[in-house]
Structure formats: C-alpha cells, structure tokens
Design brief:
Distance between the termini: 95 Å
Keywords: Hydrolase, Membrane, Nucleotidyltransferase, Transferase, Transmembrane, Transmembrane helix
GO molecular function, one term: diguanylate cyclase activity
Radius of gyration: 40 Å
Strand content: 15-25%
Number of helices: 20
Transmembrane segments: 20-51, 71-93
Largest sheet: 8 strands, mixed, barrel
Strand order of the largest sheet: 6-7-9-10-11-12-13-14
EC number: 2.7.7.65, 3.1.4.52
Helix content: 55-70%
Organism: Alicyclobacillus sendaiensis PA2
Mean pLDDT: 80
Structural class: alpha/beta
C-alpha cells in the first residue's frame, strides 16, 4: 500500500519545485477541509443549543440524547479526517525530505567524481589543471617557485598483459597510497591518464630538494607489495619549473612530459630535468614517430650484418642481423634512435617480420655461394607477446629459403624473457630446431633463473662489460665468473663490443668462445659482407 501511494503521488513529480507546489496545494485543500469541518461543528453546536431550548419543557431524557447525537457524529468525522490528513502529511513530508537528502548526496558524489579519479581517489586531469592555473597565478603574485613532476610508469602495459587488469589496478592503488605518504602535505598529486601521474610542488627552493622527492617517489613505486616479487615495476620522472620553464600550466605540463620521455629513453628508474635542448630533440622524435609506419611500408627499413668470429681462429662463423633506417632527410639512422619509438608505437612486430624475411633470404644466398655462416636475429618484447605470429614467420621463411632452423639463432634479452608468453615462445622455437641466445647478459634481472628455466645455448656478454675491462678490474673478474658459470652449464659465450687488440687478447685468454665488434667488421649490407668473405674487397 505504501509503495502504491508513493508511486501514485510522487512518481509524476520531476523536480523539487513541482513537489513543493504540490505540497502547497495539498495544504490549502487541508486548510479548506479543516475550515469546513470547523464550520460544520459550529453549526452542530448551534443546532444543539436550539434543540435544548426546544426540549426544555420535555422531560424525556431520550429526546435530549437524540438532540445531542449530530454533534457527536460531527466530532467523530472531524477527528478521523484530521488523523488521516496528519498521517498523509507526515508520509508526504517524509518522502520529500528523503528525496531531497538522496539528491543532495547524489550531487555531492557527482561533484566528487567530476573532480577525482574513480580508481585511486586522486584529483583527475581537469580539476588538477584548474588548481594548477590557480597555483600559477598565486605564484606570480607572491614571486614563488613551483615544480611539476610528471611520473610515467615503466612497462605498465606489460604488467597488465602478464597479470591482468585487476592486478594492475591493485598496483596503482598501492603505489598512489605510498606516494600520498611520501609527498608533502602542501603538494598536489593527480592522475592524468592511465599510468601517468603528476605532483605539483609549491614553495620550491633548491633543485636538489625536488630531485630528492623524485627519488622517494621512485623508491615507493619499487616497494609496491602486490607483484614486487614477480615484476620489476618502475617509474620515470620528468621535472619542469615555474617560472624558468614556462608560465602557463599547459606549457609546463608539456615540458615535464618531454623530460619524462627523455628519462624513459635513458633507461628505467630515471629522472630528467627539462632543458631547452629537449624541445629540438623531441620535435625530431615526433617526426620520426609520424614517419615510421610509412617508412616500413616503403622499405626504408633495411638490414645490415655484423660478423662474429671464432675466438680460437678469428675466422667468421656467424653474423648478427641489425636494422637501420635510411631516412630521406637525415640519412642512415641507428636503431637506438628509432627502435624506442617503434616500441612505443607497437610497430616492432612489423619491423621484426621484415628483418626475418630479408635476413634468412640473405643467409640462403650465402649458403648457395659456399659461405658457411649462421645467423643471429634479435627479438623484442612485443614479439614475445605475439609469439605465435613470430614462430610462423620464422618457420615459413626457413622453409621457403631452404635454410636449416639450427642455422638461425634467436637472441632474446632478459627483458623479453620477462614477458608472460616468453617461456612458451622459447619452448616452441626449440621444438622447431632454432637455437636460443641470451643477449646483453648481466644487464637485466634474475639471469640465473632464466638460464635454469629457458633452454639457452649461448649467452652474450654486454659491450659495457668489455669496454671497462682495462678501466676497472671488477669487470674482468665478472667476465671470468660468467665464463665459469657458462662452462658448468655447457653454454657458449660471445663477447660483444670488442674494438682493441688488448681486449681481444684478454677475452681469448679468459676462454670466450666468440668475439664480436668493430675490430672484426662494421655492420654492412649482405652483398658487401659476401664480397669481403670471398676476399674480393678489403675487410669491413
């Protein structure tokens, strides 16, 4: 009954104003009814007085009772009507107050959601920019200095791919909670996008204080409890200052973002302050980002090959396929300049497919000409995510070119092996006859665990170790330890970055199996490499 009355009386009312109008009308009607009842009661009293006067000479009590009955009936009707009106008014007013309270709470919640991020509870981008503009005006008035820290997670997409979006959300909540504890009470933390955050620091003095804050935020990120034992999560920080780097929120945010992008190019867990030189570099990067898809389609991405020699005979035994970009304006671009852009744009599988087709075709031509070499191919982390396509491309290329799978060695970095599908990729490649090498050994994480889990046949010592052989004896001891480990596990070892005779002599004495570097040849085209191998031209 109550629900039916509520539907009948309140559902047609769209706004509080209509409801208020309805209540006023109802109160007027109630007032009229009460007035009518009062008049009726007054009439009853007058009638009673008249009958009493008429019946004064009649002594029968029954007649006097009959004369008083109209007043009793009137009073009963008035009482019942008043009770009904009171109950109805209480019901309507209660529903009105409840409805107004619900709408007030809804408005409050909508106002909070319009200014805060639903997942983390931090300020969202729009509200943060409004606050940022107010802070800039206040800083201009008070001659204050502001610092904007732009925080961008490393490999957050890989974390979502490996563990799922629910775990990714838990990590974000955990990290932002830690950041709230690390920042100063006057600092403002906001979530700008999926894995991009910003911290606005007011009353900033020395740059070293801002740098210390950036390092505390990075340390808090690495301490995330959710998947810290299984996934190395980090964050890069770009920093811009008001008024030195800009006088508007949009300009400062753009410059802090440029600094964060430069920090990510340097590596993981990096901090970078904005400098004017970054604008020129990033404008070039923006052009490369826009032109790279067309360059792949037009064939501007091509393959060069660097020789790898046997350490005992110093004769060529293999080559590593390396990628280059022949830019129409800037000439030959090194992979370090455009491959990070390709990773950001998710274009690495397309580049890898082109390298696989061209390199295996060149290997087949060398074999037909009598040049007995093997081939090393580099595989990116994105290729591991699409390992089914990669395996199919490799198998199809070796079958069409008539090359044996065991003549092709797939080089994977430790970062690539951290991908969720890497173990299945390695297992499938080994089943089909390809060999696996661990590239840049010692520069990643948990290398010994990878050697145990994956069917690796070769490890490649990173060039940074070889370059420091004669400047720090620690690296010589480290390479000797790697060799001892490799011999115990039955693995071959290749040293990269060999450039001097001294490095060559020491590495051969340590027992390295293969050597690679500019000392044995610079990267060259397939035809140039074949001419050198045949003795028709000078060494590379």
């Amino acid at each position: 009954m109550r629900a039916w009355l509520k539907w009948l009386l309140l559902r047609p009312l769209a706004t509080e104003y209509r409801l208020l109008t309805y209540m006023v009308v109802m109160q007027v009607i109630v007032f009229v009814m009460v007035a009518a009842i009062a008049l009726d009661a007054a009439g009853g009293v007058s009638a009673l007085a008249h009958w009493e006067e008429v019946l004064q000479h009649d002594g029968l009590p029954i007649l006097r009772k009959l004369a008083a009955r109209p007043l009793v009936i009137t009073l009963w009707i008035a009482s019942i009507g008043a009770a009904l009106v009171l109950a109805f008014s209480i019901f309507v007013y209660r529903e009105l107050f409840l409805d107004l309270r619900r709408k007030r709470e809804l408005r409050k919640r909508l106002a909070h959601e319009s200014s805060h991020d639903a997942l983390t509870g931090l300020l969202n981008r729009a509200y943060f920019m409004d606050y940022f503009e107010y802070a800039v005006r206040a800083a201009e008035r008070d001659a204050d200095r502001l610092a904007l820290l732009y925080l961008d997670f490393d490999r957050f997409e890989a974390l979502n791919a490996a563990f799922g979006y629910r775990v990714g959300d838990e990590v974000l909540r955990d990290v932002t909670r830690r950041w709230q504890e690390e920042k100063r009470s006057a600092d403002i933390l906001a979530r700008l996008a999926g894995d991009e955050f910003a911290v606005l620091m007011t009353h900033v003095g020395r740059e070293i204080d801002v740098l210390a804050m950036a390092h505390r935020l990075m340390a808090a990120c690495r301490q995330a409890e959710t998947v810290s034992s299984r996934f190395d999560l980090g964050v890069c920080v770009g920093i811009a200052f008001f008024p030195e780097d800009g006088n508007t929120p949009d300009l400062l945010l753009r410059k802090a973002e440029l600094a964060a992008q430069r920090a990510k190019r340097r590596g993981r867990h990096q901090v970078c302050f904005y400098r004017e030189s970054l604008s020129d570099a990033m404008s070039r990067a923006d052009r490369l980002r826009n032109e790279l898809p067309r360059a792949i389609a037009r064939g501007e991405i091509y393959v060069v090959y660097q020789p790898i020699v046997d350490a005992s005979t110093l004769s060529w035994v293999s080559v590593e396929a390396l990628v280059r970009w022949r830019h129409k304006e800037w000439g030959e671009l090194s992979p370090g300049e455009f491959l990070p852009i390709a990773e950001e744009a998710r274009l690495m599988p397309a580049i890898t497919r082109r390298v696989v087709e061209e390199a295996i075709s060149s290997l087949a031509k060398w074999r037909q000409s009598g040049l007995s070499l093997t081939l090393s191919l580099n595989i990116s982390a994105q290729d591991c995510q699409l390992y089914g396509d990669l395996v199919d491309d490799l198998s199809r290329a070796v079958a069409e070119c008539g090359v044996k799978p065991e003549d092709v060695e797939i080089e994977l970095t430790e970062q690539s092996l951290m991908e969720h599908a890497a173990e299945e990729l390695v297992r499938t490649l080994c089943e089909r006859g390809f060999r696996i090498a661990l590239d840049d050994f010692g520069t990643g994480y948990a290398s010994l665990a990878y050697l145990r889990r994956f069917q690796v046949t070769r490890i490649k010592i990173d060039r940074s170790y070889v370059a420091r052989l004669y400047t720090n004896e620690y690296y010589e001891r480290l390479i000797r330890a790697v060799m001892a480990l490799a011999h115990e596990l039955g693995l071959d070892v290749t040293a990269e970055g060999v450039e001097t005779a001294e490095q060559e002599a020491l590495l051969r004495a340590i027992g390295v199996n293969r050597l690679q570097g500019f000392r044995y040849g610079r990267p060259a085209s397939a035809s140039a490499l074949q001419e050198v191998a045949a003795g028709h031209t000078d060494p590379l």
